[in-house]
């Protein structure tokens, strides 16, 4: 938390969260932007419809209102492409809002925002499950509507990403993963703000709707936490396998497992995590596989990447069939969760060293050697932080087999470097080069360029940045060249930082609130995903900005090939960051992504009251994060104050003027 | 002279509003509604509130019919009505009506018919009170506008 609090100018840096940049985009790009957004409002309640219409018009949106869901659906079908976003009530006599949501999602893939007076968790959950991109609780305030354009941009960005990478789902998937992480991060932050309150809220919610929640957070539940031992997890996995991952529902799994004391909720939450892991696994695999595809650069790079590709295939297979190795890897991660999630990669690693020395079955030895090296250089660091007892070498060993591309390849070196990086940047280079050389010798003696690519894949904690480079390179080869040695350093400087930061954040959060352990674990494991999520969000930002105004000059001089320029935006910022040495930018971003995406409507509520302008949004939020608990009384106060003030203020200026003019 | 009367009327209005806020009949959302009133829709508040009255009376009628039906069982439909009532009431800031709706819905979810009947009585009472007071408010406003010598087309 402390790390998150001191975020001075980071909000203005372009790689922070989408919130900041969107605010910035408003200013820098065009003041016009959200104006003219075409909104379809569907609500059977005419009163609300009228109010919403008025509010939306005041936001300068183009509003179409509709009091019947069927009419709305026809309208949407007839006039395809003439709406940007749909606001729909949940309960409507002719058609359930969820049904409409589903149809709209299927047929025209528009962002749909649900709204209802029913703000119970079960109802909101239902909306989310049906694919609503937001759920507004009535009474809806104007400030909430001001913000709905973000869903349009987000969606558009997703689509453009899909187009760019036809054939590989990686980016899309990564994006989703990013948002997943963001969600977790958001709940973590929510927790930080007042754990007692959150707990209470959840408890209330639970009492209200008898345990309909499927993704309960075991951390906040009042029941004793279930320890997922190896045996228990294996039982769980075999049950899932028996049912098939898609058909596995908590209730059936519970029946198949037949373990006394285990509740449906326990299984449900474990299943959810399990699914997330699978998703990430397959995401990693696809992404890695995607790199060679999108590479039009030198061929040797492809060859080089081939060595990574092997793992990809493994991982892919893993995601499909869940072989024991993968499961063990998953298990290792799941098990590691209770203690300190962010520690995991390092645990893997230290044990990995052993594993590799023993001669693992499927990983080339050079990996072991290269990773072993930095480890040896800073062994005390590692052992100091991380209790070794949690995972048996057996687990780790198998996880080594199953996770090489991810935890080994990426986390391994970076966390090592993190230790060193603080001391000496040059040393990093040395280590890296050493690694490169070793890899060169053992895998493929290729020109330096190929090395360039691989370290970036190895070092960068998020696959995203690896693929950024990959995406960039086809467009201009010299760009690739210019990154030749520098990017290695850049990334290595950056990634330890982001690792550090995630470590820091994670630890602080852990300290503050035990309950978020799981959430943490999920955004944190391997400490890849937080930075991953930040990367994807960053990309989002870039996209936003590009969509809004291509003229915006954030690409530091590097001109982008008409193809996904935002990508190089991000790179630009990366390298400029690293140019400043150990700039803490990425660290802050990391924090911000979590924060920003987590900012609930409560902040939107505060927004108009705050006297600061958009430029300061980042700071406002930074402050808000700190004062979050204070904010609420504030709101109350304002409410109260308003009772008095507007009463006297009402009908003032105009009428007075009239009186005097007469 | 004219201005003086207008001032007094405005003071009356403010007093009435303050009272309604104090009683919890209205809440902050009503102010939001008032803020939406601008030169493009000079009588937005009364327009919306009149729509609300029409809709609410329909809803109240439906609810009463549902409840008075001998072989009544459709609590789900009642829940939907109540949800709408809650939505519209909260949207105009009719705080007390909304609160009664919440209680009503809770009773209907427990299939508690006596509870529903009591809640309906209360709801009708609250609604009538709100309606009377808002009418009073609009009347004063109309007079005030007249006194100010500006003729807005108030209340269709």
Automatic annotation (TrEMBL), chain A:
GO biological process: cytokinin-activated signaling pathway; phosphorelay signal transduction system
Modified residues (4-aspartylphosphate): 89
SUPFAM superfamilies: CheY-like, Homeodomain-like
CDD domains according to UniProt: REC_typeB_ARR-like
Positions of the Response regulatory domain: 38-153
Lineage: superkingdom: Eukaryota
Localization of this protein: Nucleus
Keywords recorded for this protein, A-Z: Activator, Cytokinin signaling pathway, DNA-binding, Nucleus, Phosphoprotein, Transcription, Transcription regulation, Two-component regulatory system
Region of interest called Disordered, as start-end residue ranges on this chain: 160-224
Gene3D superfamilies the UniProt entry points to: 3.40.50.2300, Homeodomain-like
Compositional bias ranges of the Acidic residues kind: 207-217
Record protein name field: Two-component response regulator
Record InterPro entries: ARR-like (IPR045279), CheY-like_superfamily (IPR011006), Homeodomain-like_sf (IPR009057), Myb_dom (IPR017930), Myb_dom_plants (IPR006447), SANT/Myb (IPR001005), Sig_transdc_resp-reg_receiver (IPR001789)
Signal peptide: none
Family per similarity comment: Belongs to the ARR family. Type-B subfamily.
Listed GO CC annotations: nucleus
The UniProt record lists the keyword Nucleus: yes
MF terms in GO: DNA binding
Basic and acidic residues bias: start-end ranges: 160-180
Span of domain HTH myb-type: 220-279
UniProtKB/TrEMBL annotation, chain B:
GO MF term set: histidine phosphotransfer kinase activity; protein histidine kinase binding
Top-level division of the source organism's lineage: Eukaryota
GO cellular component terms attached to this protein's record: cytosol; nucleus
InterPro entries documented for this protein: AHP1-5/YPD1, HPT_dom_sf, Sig_transdc_His_kin_Hpt_dom
Coiled-coil features, chain-numbered ranges: none
Key words, A-Z: Cytokinin signaling pathway, Cytoplasm, Nucleus, Two-component regulatory system
A single GO BP: cytokinin-activated signaling pathway
Major place of residence: cytoplasm
Cellular compartment(s): Cytoplasm, Cytosol; Nucleus
A matching Pfam family: Hpt
Domain HPt, first and last residues per copy: 41-137
UniProt free text on domains: Histidine-containing phosphotransfer domain (HPt) contains an active histidine that mediates the phosphotransfer.
Record function comment: Functions as a two-component phosphorelay mediators between cytokinin sensor histidine kinases and response regulators (B-type ARRs). Plays an important role in propagating cytokinin signal transduction.
Protein name as annotated: Histidine-containing phosphotransfer protein
Species classification: Eukaryota, Viridiplantae, Streptophyta, Embryophyta, Tracheophyta
């Amino acid at each position: 938390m402390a790390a998150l609090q001191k975020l001075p100018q980071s909000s203005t840096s372009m790689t922070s969260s989408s919130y900041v940049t969107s605010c910035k985009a408003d200013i820098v790009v065009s003041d016009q932007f959200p104006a003219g957004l075409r909104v379809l409002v569907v609500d059977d309640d005419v009163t609300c419809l009228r109010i919403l219409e008025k509010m939306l018009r005041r936001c300068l949106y183009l509003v179409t209102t509709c009091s019947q869901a069927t009419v709305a659906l026809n309208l949407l079908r007839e006039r395809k492409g003439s709406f940007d976003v749909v606001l729909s009530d949940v309960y409507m006599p002719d058609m359930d809002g969820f049904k409409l949501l589903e149809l709209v999602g299927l047929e025209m893939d528009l962002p749909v925002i649900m709204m209802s007076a029913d703000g119970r968790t079960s109802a909101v959950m239902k909306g989310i499950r049906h694919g609503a991109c937001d759920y507004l609780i009535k009474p809806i305030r104007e400030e909430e509507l001001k913000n709905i354009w973000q869903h349009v941009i987000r969606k558009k960005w997703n689509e453009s990403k899909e187009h760019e990478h036809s054939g590989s789902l990686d980016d899309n998937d990564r994006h989703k993963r990013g948002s997943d992480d963001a969600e977790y991060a958001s709940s973590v932050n929510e927790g930080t703000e007042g754990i007692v309150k959150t707990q209470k809220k959840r408890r209330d919610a639970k009492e209200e709707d008898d345990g309909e929640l499927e993704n309960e957070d075991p951390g906040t539940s009042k029941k004793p936490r279930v320890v997922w031992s190896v045996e228990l997890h294996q039982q769980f996995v075999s049950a899932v396998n028996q049912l098939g991952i898609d058909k596995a529902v908590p209730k059936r799994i519970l029946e198949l497992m037949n373990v006394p004391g285990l509740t449906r909720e326990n299984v449900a939450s474990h299943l959810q995590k399990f699914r997330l892991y699978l998703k990430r696994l397959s995401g990693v695999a696809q992404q890695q596989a995607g790199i060679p595809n999108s590479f039009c650069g030198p061929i040797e790079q492809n060859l080089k990447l081939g060595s990574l590709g092997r793992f990809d295939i493994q991982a892919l297979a893993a995601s499909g069939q869940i072989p024991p190795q993968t499961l063990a890897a998953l298990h290792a991660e799941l098990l590691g969760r209770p203690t300190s999630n962010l520690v995991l990669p390092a645990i893997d690693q230290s044990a990995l060293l052993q594993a590799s020395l023993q001669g693992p079955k499927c990983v080339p030895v050079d990996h072991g050697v290269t990773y072993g090296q930095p480890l040896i250089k800073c062994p005390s660091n590692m052992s100091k932080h991380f209790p070794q007892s949690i995972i048996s070498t057996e687990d780790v060993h198998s996880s080594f087999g199953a996770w090489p591309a991810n935890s080994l390849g990426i986390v391994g070196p970076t966390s090592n470097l993190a230790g060193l990086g603080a001391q000496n940047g040059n040393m990093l280079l040395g280590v890296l080069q050493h690694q490169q050389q070793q890899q060169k010798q053992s895998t493929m003696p290729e020109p330096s360029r190929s090395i360039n690519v691989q370290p970036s894949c190895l070092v960068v904690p998020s696959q995203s940045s690896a693929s950024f480079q990959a995406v960039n390179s086809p467009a201009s080869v010299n760009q690739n060249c210019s990154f030749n040695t520098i990017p290695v350093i850049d990334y290595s400087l950056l990634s330890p930082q982001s690792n550090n930061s995630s470590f820091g954040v994670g630890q602080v959060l852990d300290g503050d609130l035990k309950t978020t352990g799981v959430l943490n674990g999920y955004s944190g494991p391997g400490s890849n995903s937080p930075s991953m999520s930040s990367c994807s969000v960053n990309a989002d930002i870039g996209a936003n900005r590009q969509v809004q105004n291509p003229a915006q000059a954030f690409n530091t001089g590097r001109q982008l090939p008409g193809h996904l320029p935002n990508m190089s935006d991000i790179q630009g910022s990366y390298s400029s960051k690293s140019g400043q040495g150990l700039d803490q930018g990425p660290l802050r971003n990391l924090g911000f992504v979590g924060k920003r995406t987590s900012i609930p409507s409560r902040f939107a509520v505060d927004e108009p009251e705050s006297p600061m302008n958009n430029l300061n949004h980042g700071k406002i939020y930074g402050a808000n994060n700190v004062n979050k608990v204070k904010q609420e009384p504030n709101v109350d106060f304002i409410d109260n104050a308003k009772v008095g003030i507007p009463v006297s203020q009402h009908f003032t200026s105009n009428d007075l003027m009239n009186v005097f003019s007469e | 002279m004219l201005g003086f009367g207008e001032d007094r009327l405005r003071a009356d209005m403010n007093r009435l509003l303050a009272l309604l806020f104090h009683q919890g009949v209205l809440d902050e959302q009503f102010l939001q509604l008032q803020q939406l009133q601008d030169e493009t829709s000079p009588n937005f508040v009364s327009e919306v509130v009149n729509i609300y009255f029409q809709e609410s009376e329909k809803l109240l009628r439906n609810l009463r019919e549902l409840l008075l039906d001998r072989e009544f069982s459709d609590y789900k439909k009642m829940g939907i009505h109540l949800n709408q009532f809650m939505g519209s009431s909260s949207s105009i800031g009719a705080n007390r009506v909304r609160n009664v709706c919440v209680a009503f819905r809770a009773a209907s979810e427990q299939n508690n018919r006596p509870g529903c009947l009591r809640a309906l009585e209360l709801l009708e009472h609250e609604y009538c009170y709100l309606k009377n007071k808002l009418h009073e408010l609009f009347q004063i406003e109309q007079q005030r506008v007249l006194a100010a010598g500006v003729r807005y087309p108030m209340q269709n």
